[in-house]
Amino acid sequence: MTPEGGSPEDADVPTGSTPLEVEGLRKTFGGIVAVDDVSFDVEAGTLTGLIGPNGAGKSTTFNLITGMLEPDAGTVRFNGEEITGLEPHEIANQGLARTFQIARELEEMTVLENMMLAPKGQIGESLWRSVMPITREAVREQETEQLDRVWEVLEFFEIDHLADEYAGNLSGGQRKLLEMARALLTDPDMLLLDEPFAGVNPSLEKRLLEHIHELREEGYTFLIVEHDMDLIMNNCERVIVMHQGRVLKDGTPAEIKESEEVIEAYLGGEV
């Protein structure tokens, strides 16, 4: 069951709409063109894969979408609003959350402490709590609600038994679960997952996929960067192939498999 406390069903993003629209993104580093006129959109409630060889521009595209980098040209719209140039936390507050290829949890804090930092709009951060008793009470009520939700999300990802463990002691797969759990606590409409299965053993990979599919059935939208071709082809409704900084092909898994252009340029003549 999807954790309560906020979901895509709360937002006015009907299935069939395109919450994420990327148009003409370009980014250069010195004389190197990392992303060159990249355009695509992602339909609400779907699993979309973004694939390509190393250096294709996938992670740079993610960074441009989520405000980690500023594009030289192009626009990004989310839920109909332009978010190009916004700070990462501003984009996250719009409902667009992401994970990273290398998990970025706070290693010297416990799993539970990491989770408690994730919810947005925490009134306990306000200076008013020090001078207004009613606000202190509101803070206590909110913290209780957030703690309940944190435990619910930890249970959903089956890491509640690790709540008191320091994040730095977790395995690579457990860190992936923690990072996705933290992202879910921001009440996103859409999640961008950067190599969520890298370094994950087969049993944890299966659990992650189950969680992703369950969340998708509840209405969440996913864009996933992944190198594992079989995993993307077997789990995504749509696949975007990047090559040398550009979108080479955009279509269903069947269309990608049948594309001579993709087979020649990326798959080495074999799917």
Features:
271 residues; alpha/beta; Rossmann fold; six-stranded mixed sheet; four-stranded antiparallel sheet; 34% helix; transport
> What ranges have pLDDT less than 50 throughout 5 or more consecutive residues?
5-15, 121-132
* Main beta-sheet annotation: 6 strands, mixed
Classify the beta-strand content into a percent band: 15-25%
Helix content bin: 25-40%
Put simply, the count of helices is 9
Overall spatial form: globular
Tell me the total number of β-strands.
10
Query: What is the structural class?
Result: alpha/beta
Strand order of the largest sheet: 6-7-8-3-9-10
Through-space gap between termini: 35 Å
Q: What is the H level of CATH, i.e. the homologous superfamily of the domain at 8-107 and 188-265?
A: P-loop containing nucleotide triphosphate hydrolases
Mean pLDDT across all amino acids: 83
Radius of gyration: 19 Å
CATH topology of the domain at 8-107 and 188-265: Rossmann fold
CATH hierarchy: architecture of the domain at 8-107 and 188-265: 3-Layer(aba) Sandwich
CATH class of the domain at 8-107 and 188-265: Alpha Beta
In sequence order, what are the helices and strands, one letter per element? EEEHEEHEHHHEHEHEEHH
Write a structural description:
This protein has a domain at 8-107 and 188-265: Rossmann fold. It contains nine helices and ten strands. It has helices at 58-65, 88-93, 111-116, 133-156, 172-184, 202-217, 229-235, 253-258, 260-265, and strands at 20-29, 32-42, 47-51, 73-78, 81-82, 96-98, 190-194, 221-225, 238-243, 246-251. It is globular, with a radius of gyration of 19 Å. This is Probable branched-chain amino acid transport ATP-binding protein LivG.
